[in-house]
Amino acid sequence: MGPASTDLPPQVPLDLKPGEEHAFDLLLAKEPESAKVKVAVVVRPGGKDASVGDLFLARFNDGTPGGKGAHQAGLGDAQTLLFRIPPAVMRDGSNRIVIRNGQQPIRMVAFEVRVNQ
């Protein structure tokens, strides 16, 4: 028997170059259709004089496109980007989120899933 998903090494922090994609696996519970689900991604600029560029949710689970993240205030040079997730595409257990970086190098610092906030 292999390690449980929660026993695996952390997926962040992770540096993403411009145009690079990376898949992350998140353990989630399926939410009802009426739920408002957002994934918050905390990022920092990846180089001297760099800014937090555009970050895109390329795919969620079976190819559902997510679009560009909405910026939210952050602390220091960190920025939080919010992505809406349709509850219909979520499933109990492992969910895969693919993030694509825009034009600036960034460091992904954390993920947070928000329901009905």
By DSSP, the count of extended strands is 9
Would you identify the regions where 5 or more consecutive residues have pLDDT less than 50? none
User: Tally the helices: what do you get?
Assistant: 0
**How much helix, percentage-wise, in residues?**
under 10%
Average per-residue pLDDT, rounded, comes to 80
Structural class: mainly beta
Condensed summary:
The chain has 117 residues and is mainly beta.
What descriptive keywords fit this protein?
single chain; 117 residues; mainly beta; Jelly Rolls; five-stranded antiparallel beta sheet; four-stranded antiparallel beta sheet
What order do the helices and strands come in, and which of them pair?
Blueprint: E1 14-16, E2 21-28, E3 37-45, E4 55-60, E5 67-68, E6 70-72, E7 79-85, E8 93-101, E9 106-115
Antiparallel strand pairs: 1-9, 2-8, 3-7, 3-9, 4-5, 4-8, 6-7
Descriptive overview:
- There is one protein chain.
- By secondary structure, this protein is an all-beta fold.
- It has one domain (12-115): Sandwich (Jelly Rolls), CATH 2.60.120.
- Helices cover 0% and strands 49% of the residues.
- It contains no helices and 9 strands.
- Strands 1-9-3-7-6 form a 5-stranded antiparallel beta sheet, with no helix packed on it. The chain has a 4-stranded antiparallel beta sheet with strand order 2-8-4-5, with no helix packed on it.
- A hairpin with a 6-residue loop joins strand 4 and strand 5.
- The radius of gyration is 14 Å and the shape is globular.
- It starts with 13 loop residues before the first strand and ends with a strand.
- The model has no long low-confidence stretch (mean pLDDT 80).
